[in-house]
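About this split. The held-out portion is used to measure sequence recovery: a designer receives only the structure tokens and must propose an amino acid at every position. Recovery is the fraction of positions where the proposal matches the reference. Here is one held-out target exactly as it appears in the evaluation file.
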């Protein structure tokens, strides 16, 4: 008989057994078109703004900005942010008894606390990255960097996209340029130095010195469920660090404990939207 000793493994098991499409259908969504679009059940929605991503078992609504996995879906629908209550709702919807599969129930509260802490850290990192990429996107459109902006537009037009579509997508996906001043910008937005370091955009030496890893690079965000979860920087003629054509965000490790960026499957939603895909 299947059993689990931690809540995270149980959640993975539940996600493997139920598709995001099944969950929304069980919640009353009856019209999902061939592109995965449907009227959102979390708000009044005349034009379908909910997108269901079966390949990643996730969803995102471009109207109310809600997104996530199957637990998030039932959580939004039943107005509950409790992981246990969300699992119970899944049990009710599908006639299952998943919580009985947990072997070490006495450890459940601390496991849930750890899980929620991880979710909160991920949310904070996403908030910081979103603000950073808003800044990068605004920066690349200034007169000072119009040559780089022109290069970006022309390169994207090379994949049979019109200039109008390219410019729209650059803004939609918050592609931009790092002029080296984003740390102070983020501080001005109310984030602490510790929170900013958690984004993976900066390197902290043993001495405590903080270095912007992506100065003078074109910045590409990676989106998942409406959130920026990762990013890379491409060198330009202004880049001076000589550390390669592309640089990735610093991920959490023993060497970089200050970063809260974890392993993710990069760019899953942008890959799915082939007609809007932009090259690096």
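Reference sequence for scoring:
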């Amino acid at each position: 008989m299947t059993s689990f000793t931690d809540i995270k493994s149980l959640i993975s098991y539940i996600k493997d057994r139920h598709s995001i499409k099944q969950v929304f259908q069980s919640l009353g969504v009856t019209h999902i078109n061939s592109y995965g679009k449907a009227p959102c059940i979390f708000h009044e929605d005349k034009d379908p703004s909910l997108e269901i991503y079966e390949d990643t078992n996730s969803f995102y609504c471009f109207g109310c900005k809600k997104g996530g996995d199957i637990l998030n879906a039932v959580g939004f629908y039943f107005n509950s942010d409790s992981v246990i209550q969300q699992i119970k709702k899944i049990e009710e919807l599908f006639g299952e008894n998943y919580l009985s599969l947990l072997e070490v129930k006495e450890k459940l509260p601390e496991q849930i606390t750890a899980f929620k802490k991880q979710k909160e850290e991920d949310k904070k990192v996403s908030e910081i990255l979103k603000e950073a990429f808003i800044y990068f996107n605004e920066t690349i459109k200034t007169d000072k960097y119009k040559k780089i902006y022109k290069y970006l537009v022309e390169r994207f037009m090379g994949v049979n996209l019109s200039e109008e579509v390219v410019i729209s997508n650059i803004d939609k996906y918050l592609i931009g340029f790092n002029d080296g001043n984003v740390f102070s910008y983020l501080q001005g937005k109310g984030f602490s130095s510790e929170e900013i370091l958690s984004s993976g955009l900066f390197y902290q030496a043993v001495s405590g010195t903080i270095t912007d890893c992506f100065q003078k690079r074109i910045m590409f965000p990676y989106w998942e469920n409406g959130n920026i979860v990762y990013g890379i920087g491409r060198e330009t003629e202004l880049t001076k660090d000589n550390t390669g054509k592309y640089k990735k965000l610093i991920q959490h490790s023993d060497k970089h404990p200050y970063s809260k960026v974890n392993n993710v499957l990069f760019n899953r939603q942008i890959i799915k939207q082939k007609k809007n895909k932009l090259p690096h």
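Annotator remark: Residues 108-140 form the longest helix (33 residues).
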